[in-house]
Each structure stands twice: as structure tokens, then as C-alpha cells.
Amino acid sequence: MKTKDFLENKGDILSLDKVMDLFYSIADDRSMAFDYLKGGCYARAHMICRQLESLGLEAKKAWAIPNIMHQDSDFFEGMPELFLTALSADGVKYGWSYHVSAAVNVLSSEGSVDELIIDPGLFDAPVKLDQWKNTMLPKAKFVEIVPFGESPSICYGDYTMSKNTSYRSDKNAQEVMNDIVASSFNSASRVVYRSDIIDTLKKEGIAVKESGKNWVTKINP
């Protein structure tokens, strides 16, 4: 991928058609092990952010954190939850202590700038924050999108929740992905949710896919 193939005249803001080209390229990359939802999200988010930076884009991260992590007592409702429970499109539940994905600025059809999350392990297109967090139960009490390299407001780390990005992070993220691919390769297509922006894309005449090299969209009747 070349920078000029994705950038608009508005600097680091992508158009809807360009963000879809970028998303499909990332979603079809088997080296990112998107079919392995048990862990590794921090490494994927880091690697995608590095890719966005290489294209001249402003990379961001979306964080979802259960209420037990928050120090404000207003966030606690009854028994605090230690984990997020993510329900994949094929009905499998995963327990996460937190979840993080890459995000990027996109120019909407109305002319506003949206922060869209790139999470091909769960969705068939970029998604807005509300839809992303609603795949996690109980609903994450804290969600935030921050620039790449900055920690969310309730955590110390920006690479993981407890570690900051350093000169070791690029190598570590690649090693994490290599280990996951080597130990859990799955030739079957993963099932993902349909993004709410798909209808907008179709109205704008932007081509969308219902499957890729190793993923397929769950179509609700």
C-alpha cells in the first residue's frame, strides 16, 4: 500500500471509500491473527497504528475497560466486574480484562469527521464507538479514543494497560502475532458482525464485501 493511494486532500482524514480499501487490506492479512479472539489485541492495535502512521495518517486507539478498573466510585454499580465478556458473531464468548483497537479519522458523507474503529476480528467494516462497545457484556463502563502513544485517562500504559510504548514495542507486537499464528492457525473463515456504516456506504455507492480471504459477515434474517 502506498500513502498516495489512501490519502485525501484533507491531510490525515480518510474518505469512506479509502478507509474501506484500507480496512479490507488489513482484514485479509492472516499475519494479524484476527480469528484468535482470546488475546493479543494490544499487539494488533499497535501494529495497525504503526501502519496508519506509515501512511501519513493520525493513528488512534479505542479502549474498552470494565468498571473495576476505574477509581471513580460512580462507575461501580452493584458487584464490580473484573472482565468484559465479548460475544463474537458466531456465538462464542471471550473474557477480556480490557480491549483495545486502532482507530482513524474518516470524513463522513455529511462532511463531519468521525473517529472509526478498525477491529476486523469482530466487524466487517470500521465502526463507531457505540457499536464497538456494545459487543462487550456487561457494557464497558469506560470507553475512550485517544491518540496513539497516549494512555487512556484512567490507565498508566498506552501499549497495554500497564506498559507504555517503547523501542521494544514494535518487536514485541510482531513476536506476539507470530506466536499466535504459529500456535493457533485456523483455516476456517471467522464470522464477524455487520458494521452499522454499511448502509451508508451502499447509499454512497461504495462497494462493500460480505466476505474476504478468511472472514464472512453474519447476516441477520
Total count of helical runs of at least 4 residues: 6
Our estimate of the beta-strand percent is: 15-25%
**Which strands sit side by side, in order, in the main sheet?**
5-4-1-7
H/E order of the elements? Answer: HHHEEEEEHEEHEHE
According to DSSP, the number of beta strands is 9
CATH fold description: C8orf32 fold
Give a verbal description of the structure.
The protein has 221 residues and is α+β, with helices and mostly antiparallel strands. The protein has one domain (3-215): C8orf32 fold (Roll). Helix content is 26%, strand content 19%. The chain has six helices and nine strands; from the N terminus they run H-H-H-E-E-E-E-E-H-E-E-H-E-H-E. It has a four-stranded antiparallel β-sheet. The chain has a three-stranded antiparallel β-sheet with strand order 3-2-6, with no helix packed on it. A two-stranded parallel sheet has the order 8-9. Helix 3 (41-54) crosses helix 5 (169-184).
